[in-house]
Amino acid sequence: MRVLVLGHGKTGKLVAEVATERGHGVHVLDAKENPRGAALTAPFVAGFDVVIDFTTPEAVLTNLRACLAVGAKVVVGTTGWYGSLHDMSGLATRKEGALLHGTNYSIGVQVMLQLAKQMAAPLRKAGYEFKIEETHHVTKLDAPSGTAISLQQSLSEVGEVPITSLREGDVPGLHVIEAVSGSDRLLLTHEAFGRRGFAEGAVRGAEWLSTRKGVYDFRDIFTEL
């Protein structure tokens, strides 16, 4: 494939590396080369099979509008924009493009989301109280993280579970669900050792999306990769 990577931060660099390793042609645009989406003209975007966005909450919507408006296939790993998901999904559908979104492209996190949903009802009935704690690097802009919000949604059967967000050093991502009763405590934890798992999931998602149209959530398709 011909892959356009938007964002040249730590995860964006890894996405480019992984895509190259998997035999794809890669072009990377950083923020200076794409101010307010100016580089994303229709002829330029048409030169790529798929676009992968790992930018910032401030830039992602401009990028999405520019790419989806010309029917591109876009994988977005940036978080902090989900209030506009309905609008972006509608744009992708109208222009017969494709959009794959996800708050986390780690396979391990996707399994954690499933486990959280499975444990919610029986533990709630047994009187357990829940809370979520997430820790990320100090440069992460959104708090709580998109993953923590997804975990909270997976536990919706027990009510709105409180989230504590910590920003420390260069932590790639640590998410913990704690369920406590008067008798014991259950912990469900995912700790990322680096960002490569996120990059690999995004690239494999792009390969999957390259032959499709429509709007997809990574949590619904990750088992097909």
Characterise the protein shown here.
This protein has 225 residues and is α/β, with parallel strands linked by helices. The chain folds into two domains: 2-101 and 196-220, 3-Layer(aba) Sandwich (Rossmann fold); 107-193, Dihydrodipicolinate Reductase, domain 2 (2-Layer Sandwich), CATH 3.30.360.10. The protein is 37% helix and 24% strand. It contains eight helices and ten strands. It has helices at residues 10-21, 42-45, 57-68, 85-94, 107-125, 146-154, 196-209, 218-221, and strands at residues 2-6, 25-29, 50-53, 73-76, 98-101, 129-136, 163-167, 174-180, 185-191, 214-217. The strands form two sheets. Strands 2-1-3-4-5-10 form a six-stranded parallel beta sheet, with helices on both faces. It has a four-stranded mixed beta sheet with strand order 7-6-8-9, covered by helices on one side. Helix 1 (10-21) links the parallel strand 1 (2-6) and strand 2. Helix 1 (10-21) packs across helix 7 (196-209) and helix 5 (107-125) packs parallel to helix 6 (146-154). The radius of gyration is 18 Å and the shape is elongated. This is 4-hydroxy-tetrahydrodipicolinate reductase. GO terms for molecular function: 4-hydroxy-tetrahydrodipicolinate reductase. Keywords: Amino-acid biosynthesis, Diaminopimelate biosynthesis, Lysine biosynthesis, NAD, NADP, Oxidoreductase. Residues 108-221 form the Dihydrodipicolinate reductase C-terminal domain. Pathway: Amino-acid biosynthesis; L-lysine biosynthesis via DAP pathway; (S)-tetrahydrodipicolinate from L-aspartate: step 4/4.
